[in-house]
Specification:
about 300 residues, alpha/beta, Alpha-Beta Plaits, 2 domains, 11 helices, binds adenosine-5'-diphosphate
Length: about 300
């Protein structure tokens, strides 16, 4: 069977807000299944999603979604995609089931079908019991769930989820991530999940597009990106005045480095001879190595490397 083409393609896309450039000449693709859109706040993730939906018009570039050109067919695209925005988007005074049914009607479903689907998706996202309550009485976690419900109600082929776990407690977050996985793995929906949280992306997605400061800095299968082009070490040091200066020195020597909990830093040493290099740099900086252990690269290492490449 032929490989399916990309679900989303961007070619040379630049978006500016006044003098602020949010997307800088972006060319990338999103394949089928669940793909993460990972980057720190302000990287341009929401802007990319809004551009793909036709809400923000780029200064330059072309985009295709589900084989359709965004500039030429934004309404056809919108009928086939669902969007869970980052900010609240409910209508005050409306209960959940009326709101979600209304969203379904806006997407073109007849009234009876819209109401039936609204009940179904509210149960699916875990709001069955609360479906007759007004949405403004909902907790943050429930508001996230209803945003997912309205994105799903018209049975889209592609879902854009913008920071879906924002503001959720750990249990709610786990449940949201399970829903995202279920949609992609069992329901055959293509999902683009934007997040600044690495564990969320690693748990839900096979592929990732990593963004920083308006650019794509890494792109591909998460497992592939984690294959080392060097070695990663866990390191704990004793340094007069704290490890910050040593971290700066490691970075100046071309070693990506980030602190984790428990006083341990993770250091990526490109090429061969990793441990030796670290000992030499520590000796030169009069820093005592307390703990050094080779480690398996994580998505966080990939991210640190990608974002570190200016
Ligand atoms: P992310 O979703 O990764 O947090 P955004 O796409 O929201 O990033 O923002 C990218 C950049 O564009 C940021 O510098 C942000 O301040 C800016 N930006 C976003 N929306 C607007 C807007 N409506 N007007 C002006 N600047 C904006």
């Amino acid at each position: 069977m032929a490989e399916p083409g990309p679900v989303v393609t961007l070619e040379g896309v630049t978006v500016t807000y006044g003098t602020n450039t949010a997307l800088r000449d972006i060319s990338t693709t999103f394949g089928a299944g669940a793909v993460g859109l990972l980057g720190p706040n302000g990287a341009g993730k929401s802007t990319m999603i809004k551009s793909l939906l036709g809400f923000v018009v780029p200064n330059q570039g072309r985009m295709r979604v589900l084989g359709l050109d965004v500039a030429e067919a934004p309404l056809q695209i919108r009928a086939r995609v669902g969007y869970m925005p980052e900010n609240d988007a409910h209508i005050p005074g409306m209960n959940a089931v009326s709101f979600v049914a209304y969203c379904a009607e806006l997407s073109g479903l007849p009234r009876v079908d819209a109401m039936q689907r609204a009940h179904e998706v509210l149960f699916y996202v875990g709001l069955g019991e609360a479906r007759y309550r007004n949405v403004e009485t909902y907790s943050t976690g429930m508001k996230q769930r209803i945003k997912l419900a309205q994105a799903l109600v018209h049975d889209p082929e592609l879902l854009f989820l913008d920071e879906p776990t924002n503001g959720m407690d750990p249990k709610g977050r786990d449940e949201m991530l399970e829903l995202v996985r279920d949609l992609a793995l069992n329901k055959g929906v293509n999902v683009i999940v934007s997040s600044h949280l690495l564990p969320d992306i690693e748990y839900t997605c096979r592929d990732v597009v990593v963004m920083d400061k308006g650019r794509v800095v890494a792109h591909g299968a998460i497992e592939g990106l984690k294959q080392p082009r060097g070695r990663v070490f866990e390191l704990r040091v004793k340094a007069a005045g704290g490890p910050e200066r040593f971290i700066e020195q490691l970075r100046a020597a071309g070693l990506e480095c980030h602190a984790t909990d428990d006083d341990v830093m993770r250091v990526f040493v490109p090429g061969e001879g990793g441990a030796q290099r670290l000992f030499e740099l520590a000796a030169a900086a009069s820093v005592q190595v307390r703990h050094l252990r080779p480690s398996v690269p994580t998505l966080e290492d990939v991210f640190a490397q990608a974002v570190g490449e200016e």
